[in-house]
Amino acid sequence: MKSKASLFLSAAMLGAASTASAVDYARQIAPILKQRCGDCHTTGSKKPKGDFAINRIEDMQKQVKGGEPQKSSLIISITLPEDDEDVMPPKGKGKVTPQEVATIRQWIQEGASFTP
Asked: Judging by beta carbons within 10 Å of its beta carbon (0-12, 13-18, 19+), is residue 64 exposed, middle or buried?
């Protein structure tokens, strides 16, 4: 039989795991996108490539399917093999790291919220 202290510790650990903070778009996702995609996919003095801008929320909402990273073209395009002609960013532009992909995937899985 478990002691009360052991049961309390187990409950506390479970509670801590279930209240882990969600991925924050402004603090975690936007900086990745700016670094990896910003040179070609932002609004400004020139038209964004592919008519997709990471700083237009409506464009981002078309590229991510909250709760479904496997159906989100953002995840699909950044996880293509490096020799695929559709991979983003293109060859030589600095591939999104596995940790960055995991963070983006988690954000999408959590619903892809753009607000804190």
From this structure: buried
